[in-house]
Amino acid sequence: xxxxxxxxxxxxxxxxxxxxxxxxxxxxxxxxxxxxxxxxxxxxxxxxxxxxxxxxxxxxxxxxxxxxxxxxxxxxxxxxxxxxxxxxxxxxxxxxxxxxxxxxxxxxxxxxxxxxxxxxxxxxxxxxxxxxxxxxxxxxxxxxxxxxxxxxxxxxxxxxxxxxxxxxxxxxxxxxxxxxxxxxxxxxxxxxxxxxxxxxxxxxxxxxxxxxxxxxxxxxxxxxxxxxxxxxxxxxxxxxxxxxxxxxxxxxxxxxxxxxxxxxxxxxxxxx
Amino acid sequence: xxxxxxxxxxxxxxxxxxxxxxxxxxxxxxxxxxxxxxxxxxxxxxxxxxxxxxxxxxxxxxxxxxxxxxxxxxxxxxxxxxxxxxxxxxxxxxxxxxxxxxxxxxxxxxxxxxxxxxxxxxxxxxxxxxxxxxxxxxxxxxxxxxxxxxxxxxxxxxxxxxxxxxxxxxxxxxxxxxxxxxxxxxxxxxxxxxxxxxxxxxxxxxxxxxxxxxxxxxxxxxxxxxxxxxxxxxxxxxxxxxxxxxxxxxxxxxxxxxxxxxxxxxxxxxxxxxxxxxxxxxxxxxxxxxxxxxxxxxxxxxxxxxxxxxxxxxxxxxxxxx
Lengths: 272, 322
Fold this sequence. Notes:
heterodimer; A: mainly alpha; MetI-like fold; globular; B: mainly alpha; two-stranded antiparallel ribbon
């Protein structure tokens, strides 16, 4: 039995190396200069060129503006999604009203619509209302989504006891106070998952920002990174320094919250 | 009065069985105004940025429009042209090849990793985090990274091949090599995610089943194929559907790696358009060429292709059940 265990862990560790390796190699590239990467065999240890490479990134794109835009978009989207999705989810989970089944069924159908079907008209709408190039074009359409309502409904249905809501109502709490004072405090772990999930999705979003952010001074990180790659793609060290900055914040957030996050992410999939 | 204003709250399952009372319908609707208000933000946003755009794009598919001038009704011309557009069919072939090259290894490896994680009790928490990390990293950054790794002259893959004394492969200019590079990004990003979903499914399989099989003398491989895989079928179906829907819409990886500057090069999708996917072609027609009508027609055909392929995969996975 012992050698079998050993090979099992050896195979698993090999998988871990494959999944972590790109980060290691990104750091190698970002901390050396490109000529060190270009030689054969390539250099495989960290160098001391990170700041030089970062300087080159900042010279070529307005990186801090892009980072700031991404933080604004991801934060605003997350706050709005948390509020609107949990409120709607609470309603679907704990109240009966005419049309509830139809409206909730519609929600699941909306899941299935591929994004590119609505991409052109969305762009047309944005240009009609003058939002092309503006950050609100990213935030407002994403302020509530079907996945979040669907996932939170499952969570609230089991996490918020009916007795608690009954007691609140006997005390004279109307609907919105039941949501705010009773439901929200009980579902904090669920909100944490939905918040991280939304933030990660908004941070990494690419297609829609690529379409709607037409002003080169007003980009998100992903679009700025892609443009940097298009213009200076041969300078691996420089581009990897930029990529590292775009990836690192999320990886840190993820590792900090990972345990609960993975369990919750799987819950949604296995039940759905 | 007070009774009517109180929301009728029941567990959802029980509520589903309650027949609607038509008599008090209107008043019941009015009495529930806070609930409708609470769910309205999503439906309003969906109406403006979801439903209306979908209908409008269907309308657009019968027009010729550059987004600025007047629209011109052209009937079925866009679709007629699309069916004869060899570039679209090329993009469809490319998409399917990339889907196949990424989904098959991805789901197979995920199953194997999940089975290994399920049998090893120690460090599972660490493994789960490590395997999940690729899924939260930026697709753009990773596409750029894999581009550098697959680079013909200076990439790590070719350096490795040279180190072994083998010849180098022009990954980013050869039509198949390009697809392999794109598929590698997708496989790297989604294998761990699927493995962890499978693992969660495996943990719900009763251990008595395994014990009974072991007593009957079944080996680990037999147990895997005779018990684990059949018991996981609903979850495998879920992952197949999800990877079909997302795989048919592959865009970011080929766009970052091969979406050339259109002012210099009228084509997109790299040399010989070897990595032109359906959605990349849609994007190119709609937003590089400003053919909004043609773009809308492509988007609808892609939608039909996705639905058909999902239905086919659904039947394949379900049929094996019997």
